[in-house]
């Protein structure tokens, strides 16, 4: 059974959400920030998420999503995309899987941490990251213009989990970036998924 080291509203939400989508058993080891020193025996970086899958220890949320779906192909076929038979669909899936972290969660986190660490509500770093975030949300809004239900089309995938966490982080941190209309509707669809609702309660 997978053990998930979890801090609410952190990237470990992605892993719990995936396990809820798969309806697979898992165990949560709750943590708080700062993490206790003994946790560094599990992960020397002290970061979450960290998982222990019967002795296989991993961190980095997107790597964990790919690992879990890769190890559980029969159960995961509905929420991941492989290179066959359509390389273009696989490329799109990977692009948006990483878009959720690199293009959305990272600038949101940078804005939040900059404000906490500097006690400044605006400076050059914050202004730059807000601009980058707005540009990327506009791109996502245009991508959804064909009225697709999920980011890669009709099929919900771990790319949606990746992006959905970024929206949860946006809400949690209170970063003042309004979602464009189609993106806001997409976020509502993600929030309506029973697995997401169960995950955020953990």
Can you tell me about this structure?
Helix 1 runs parallel beside helix 2 (61-71) and helix 1 crosses helix 8. Strand 1 (2-6), helix 1 and strand 2 form a beta-alpha-beta unit. This protein has 202 residues and is of the alpha+beta class. A 4-stranded mixed sheet has the order 2-1-3-4, covered by helices on one side. It has 8 helices and 4 strands, in the order βαβββααααααα. It is globular, with a radius of gyration of 17 Å. It has helices at 12-22, 61-71, 73-76, 87-118, 124-143, 158-173, 181-191, 194-200, and strands at residues 2-6, 26-30, 50-53, 56-59. The chain has 2 domains: 2-76, Glutaredoxin, CATH 3.40.30.10; 87-200, Glutathione S-transferase Yfyf (Class Pi), Chain A, domain 2 (Up-down Bundle). Helix content is 55%, strand content 9%.
Spell out the key features of this protein.
single chain, alpha+beta, four-stranded mixed sheet, Glutathione S-transferase Yfyf (Class Pi), Chain A, domain 2, 4 strands, 8 helices, 9% strand, 2 domains, Glutaredoxin, 202 residues
Brief summary of the model shown:
This protein is of the alpha+beta class and 202 residues long. The chain contains eight helices and four strands; from the N terminus they run βαβββααααααα.
């Amino acid at each position: 059974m997978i053990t998930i080291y979890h801090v609410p509203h952190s990237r470990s939400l992605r892993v719990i959400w995936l396990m809820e989508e798969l309806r697979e058993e898992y165990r949560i080891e709750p943590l708080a920030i700062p993490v206790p020193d003994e946790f560094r025996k599990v992960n020397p970086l002290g970061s979450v998420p960290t998982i222990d899958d019967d002795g296989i220890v991993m961190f980095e949320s997107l790597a964990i999503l790919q690992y879990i779906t890769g190890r559980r192909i029969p159960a995961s076929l509905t929420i991941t995309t492989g290179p066959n038979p359509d390389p273009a669909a696989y490329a799109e899936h990977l692009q948006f899987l990483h878009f959720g972290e690199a293009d959305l969660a990272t600038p949101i986190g940078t804005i939040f941490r900059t404000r906490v660490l500097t006690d400044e509500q605006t400076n050059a770093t914050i202004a730059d990251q807000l601009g980058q975030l707005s540009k990327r949300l506009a791109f996502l809004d245009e991508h959804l213009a064909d009225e697709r239900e999920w980011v890669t089309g009709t099929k919900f995938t771990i790319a949606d989990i990746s992006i959905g966490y970024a929206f949860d982080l946006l809400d949690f941190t209170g970063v003042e970036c309004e979602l464009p209309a189609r993106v806001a509707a997409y976020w509502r669809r993600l929030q309506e998924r029973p697995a997401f609702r169960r995950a955020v309660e953990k």
